[in-house]
Design goal:
This protein is mostly helical and 438 residues long. 77% of the residues lie in helices and 1% in strands. The protein is built from 23 helices and two strands.
C-alpha cells in the first residue's frame, strides 16, 4: 500500500499531464483498496478518477463522484490525514479547472470547518491556495491575499516543496492589480509550474508583447494533451488574442471552436463567458461588428452571472470598443463607465487606465459644435445629465432614470464642471442655458 500511496501523491495538486495514465492509476488504487478493505485508498482513487473525468471533459460524472467521496470524508469514513487532504484538494482543483466557483465555495466552507475541528489545517493549505483563486475571481482580493499568505506560511512549515502553489496565484493577483514587475518576479520564482507559464504569457499581453505572449501560450498548450480539455481553456483564450494580433485568424477561429466545446461540456457560466468573449474578439477583427457586439454582450452577462467584476469590467471595455466602431458613442461611454465602476473597487490600475483611455477617445469623438456656439467638449451623455439636473433631479434620481450607477452620474457631473470651468451644478446649468444646450 505504501507504493500505491506514493504514486497517487505524485499527481497531487491538479497538475496532471496524461489523463489516460491517471485513470489507470486510480482504477488500480480503487481495486487494491477494495481487495484489502482499505477504504482510504479506495476513496482517494475514486477522487482521482473524478478529477480525471472533469479534466477530460466528462464534467457531470466527475463532479458527482468527487461530491460523493468528499461527503464520505465529512462523514468520517476516512482516517488517513494525507489521503483526506488529497481527496479534498482534488475536488477544489476540479472546481477551479471548470470555474465552478459556487461549488468550490460551498465545499471549502465545509472542508475548512472539518479540518479545523480535527486539527488538519496544514492539510487544507493547498486547497486554500485554490480557494484564494475563487476569491480572486469573485473580486474579494483582500481575502485572496490573506488566504495566500496564510497558506504560504503553512506550506513553508509543512510542505516546502509545494510553496509554488501559493506564490503562482499571488503572482496572478499582482498581475490583475497592475503590478506587472512584482507579478513577473513571482512567476519566475515558480519555475516550471504550469500556472507560472500562463502567468508570464499574460504579463506579455499586458505589456503589449503579443508575439511572445502567444508563443508562451502555444508552448503551454503543446504540453497539454488534447484530452486534458478543461485545463486548456485559459491558454486557448490567450492564443485567440495572440493569433488575432498577428493576423492568424484561422488559428484563432480554431481556438474559439475548442473553447466552445470545453464550455459546452462544463456548462459553467465563466467558461461560457470565456468562449463568448473570444468569439466576439474574432468577429470584431473580421469586421462582423453585429456578431461581435452580441457575443461580447453575452460574455458580459455571463461574467456578471458568474460573479467576476474583473472579467466583467475587462469585457465591457472590449464591448465599448465595438460600440464605438458601430457609431454608438453613448452606449460605448456607458459601457466604459460601468467598466470603471466594476474595476475601481478592486484597484485594477492597468485595466482602469485602459478604460479611461477609451473614455477620453469617446469624449473626443462626441465633442461637437452646437448651433449657438462651442459645447465645451461636452458629450451627449453629459448634456443629457445637465438637462436632468436643470429639472431638479439629484444624482440618485438621474441614475435611476438612465439605468446607470450613481457613481457614474457623479463622474459625469465632475467631468462637466471641469469642462465648463465652474464650481457648482447650478453654475453648470446656467452656462449650458447660455450655450443653448437645454
Amino acid at each position: 500500500m505504501g507504493r500505491q500511496r506514493g504514486f497517487v501523491q505524485r499527481f497531487f495538486g491538479g497538475r496532471l499531464e496524461h489523463v489516460q495514465v491517471v485513470i489507470g492509476a486510480e482504477s488500480e488504487a480503487v481495486r487494491i483498496g477494495r481487495v484489502l478493505g482499505a477504504v482510504d485508498y479506495e476513496m482517494v482513487g475514486r477522487a482521482l478518477h473524478g478529477f480525471a473525468r472533469v479534466t477530460g471533459g466528462r464534467v457531470a460524472e466527475g463532479l458527482q463522484e468527487l461530491d460523493e467521496v468528499n461527503a464520505a470524508v465529512l462523514a468520517g469514513e476516512m482516517s488517513d490525514r494525507v489521503l483526506i487532504g488529497l481527496t479534498c484538494c482534488y475536488l477544489i482543483a476540479a472546481c477551479e479547472r471548470i470555474r465552478d466557483y459556487e461549488r468550490a465555495v460551498q465545499w471549502c466552507d465545509r472542508l475548512k470547518a472539518f479540518c479545523a475541528k480535527w486539527g488538519l489545517r496544514p492539510l487544507f493549505a493547498v486547497c486554500r491556495t485554490q480557494y484564494a483563486s475563487v476569491c480572486m475571481w469573485r473580486g474579494a482580493w483582500e481575502e485572496a491575499e490573506r488566504e495566500l499568505t496564510s497558506a504560504a506560511d503553512e506550506l513553508a512549515a509543512s510542505r516546502p516543496a509545494m510553496t509554488e502553489e501559493g506564490l503562482v496565484r499571488l503572482g496572478e493577483l499582482r498581475r490583475r492589480q497592475g503590478k506587472l514587475d512584482e507579478a513577473t518576479a513571482l512567476f519566475e520564482r515558480c519555475g516550471s509550474h504550469p500556472l507560472a507559464s500562463l502567468g508570464r504569457a499574460s504579463v506579455m499581453f499586458d505589456r503589449g508583447d503579443f508575439k511572445t505572449g502567444a508563443d508562451l501560450a502555444e508552448r503551454h498548450l503543446r504540453r497539454l494533451p488534447v484530452n486534458n480539455r478543461t485545463e486548456r481553456a485559459a491558454a486557448l483564450e490567450l492564443m485567440v488574442r495572440g493569433c488575432l494580433e498577428q493576423g492568424r485568424t484561422d488559428e484563432a477561429t480554431q481556438a474559439v471552436a475548442e473553447l466552445h466545446a470545453i464550455a459546452n461540456a462544463a456548462r459553467t457560466a465563466p467558461l461560457r463567458a470565456l468562449a463568448s468573449r473570444a468569439a466576439g474578439l474574432v468577429a470584431a477583427r473580421a469586421g462582423d461588428r453585429k456578431s461581435a457586439r452580441e457575443s461580447l454582450e453575452d460574455a458580459v452577462d455571463l461574467f456578471k452571472e458568474g460573479g467576476s467584476p474583473f472579467e466583467t469590467g475587462r469585457t465591457r471595455v472590449e464591448l465599448a470598443a465595438v460600440m464605438r466602431a458601430l457609431g454608438r458613442s453613448e452606449a460605448a461611454a456607458d459601457e466604459v463607465n460601468r467598466a470603471i465602476d466594476d474595476l475601481t473597487p478592486l484597484g485594477a490600475s492597468l485595466e482602469i487606465a485602459r478604460a479611461r483611455a477609451l473614455f477620453d477617445a469617446l469624449t473626443a469623438d462626441s465633442a461637437v459644435e452646437s448651433p449657438g456656439g462651442d459645447r465645451k467638449g461636452l458629450t451627449a451623455r453629459e448634456v443629457e445629465i445637465l438637462r436632468l439636473i436643470s429639472k431638479g433631479l439629484n444624482n440618485q434620481a438621474i441614475a435611476t432614470r438612465l439605468f446607470i450607477s450613481e457613481h457614474t452620474v457623479h463622474r459625469h457631473v465632475a467631468n462637466t464642471l471641469t469642462k465648463l470651468n465652474v464650481s457648482s451644478r447650478s453654475a453648470a446649468v446656467a452656462q449650458a442655458g447660455q450655450l443653448g444646450l437645454l
